[in-house]
Amino acid sequence: MTRPVVTRFAPSPTGYLHIGGARTALFNWLYARGRGGRFLLRIEDTDRARSTEAATQAIFDGLGWLGLDWDGEAVSQAANADRHAAVAREMLEAGHAYRCWASQEEIEAFREAARAEGRSTLYLSPWRDADPADAPDGPFAIRLKAPRDGETVIEDRVQGRVTFRNDQLDDMVLLRSDGTPTYMLAVVVDDHDMGVTHVIRGDDHLNNAARQAQIYDAMGWEQPVWAHIPLIHGADGKKLSKRHGATGVGEYAEMGIPAPALRNYLTRLGWSHGDDEFFTDAQARDWFDLDGIGKAPARLDLKKLENLSGQHLSVMADDAILAAVADWAARTGRAPIDAARLRPAIPLVKDAARTLPQLIDRAAFALADRPIRPDEKAEKALDAVSRGILSELTPHLRNASWTRDALEGVVGDLAQAHGIGLGKLAAPLRAALAGRTATPSVFDMMLVLGRDETLARISDAATAA
């Protein structure tokens, strides 16, 4: 019987949610959600010196903004330390582990000598096969009694069959001499206890998989399906870092990239479904599979991300855009955006915007208060002649039906009466309504602003000194 799919995301709470970690979480989320499975969250907070509540909250916030919900409560790895230690002792009793009294000083002295002589620094503890009668008093570590011959094989769904010579793997420490479990043991025990069926993570953990597989085998536990995904690199092909731009999910939120766009982009980053670039969450859940993940590192391309962001803005529901704008303003410390004013302008501006700040800028005409102050370029369109025509236009607009066709007719008739093209009259109208030269259609702006506000702005511009 096939086990229900269970995936997990297991970040260390030592800082913000990195974009690479976000993609790992997304892949796990998609794989589980697309198969009716469970997606779990574990905070690997065993490094108590570096783990902080603020960093843990940053992970929660980052996943929440990205729209990745997890099942059940988040698990604290540190809280399971007693269980981890119990497994180490169980392995000891079963003969799959042994006590080691080697001190850190002895181990480091061995490695320094090995480096100096050009030998392998792989430490082989003399306590592995020592007579128990020779055991000294004092604290000891518990080490895995790993196989010395043969190979450990990882059948990886992304990397393929990967083999490790057992004589190149040491007897790793499971329980330190102070009684605390190591990360390698804790991960395996937690994944087993949480019922994780698929371990999908960065390929920087591939070597860890060989060592962790030995723990699974020693305990007689079924290994999970392994899938080690390539890391994300910058556009120059080097490991992603601050020099390439934003590395944290929160930074992309502050840039005004809507969450659906970042989900789409990260899904496509290192995974493919034919030539599809733009797709919905539902399509991603239906299509995503481990077989579509490439072996080569993915390259972060901000221009592609912004282009995809624009495509998502163009199809997002107005209410979703308003919610995203409110979140963006709060994150960046801006004053709240007036949703009542912005809402009617959204259909006019969302097709031309790639980010939320661009959308807000395009909708500035709807958010502005009178009197509208034209910028330098717009001011040039408001010469004496143009102001006179605007004064003449006001009574015609006051009596017009407030529809696009009627408004175009009124403005067109007046332009024709003055022997000028519609474009010549549109420029001062843009200046009067928006205070700038690059705007949506003047007639669309009139419809959004309404009769009273439109007439007031035109009157202000016509009478300004």
From TrEMBL:
One Pfam family recorded for the sequence: tRNA-synt_1c
Span(s) of short sequence motif 'KMSKS' region: 239-243
Protein name: Glutamate--tRNA ligase
PANTHER family, per database record: GLUTAMATE--TRNA LIGASE (PTHR43311), GLUTAMATE--TRNA LIGASE, MITOCHONDRIAL-RELATED (PTHR43311:SF2)
UniProt motif 'HIGH' region: location: 11-21
Gene Ontology MF terms in the entry: glutamate-tRNA ligase activity
Ranges for domain Glutamyl/glutaminyl-tRNA synthetase class Ib catalytic: 5-306
Annotated Aminoacyl-tRNA synthetase class I anticodon-binding domain residues: 325-461
EC number assigned by the record: 6.1.1.17
Listed HAMAP family: Glu_tRNA_synth_type1 (MF_00022)
Reaction catalyzed: tRNA(Glu) + L-glutamate + ATP = L-glutamyl-tRNA(Glu) + AMP + diphosphate
Location of the protein in the cell: Cytoplasm
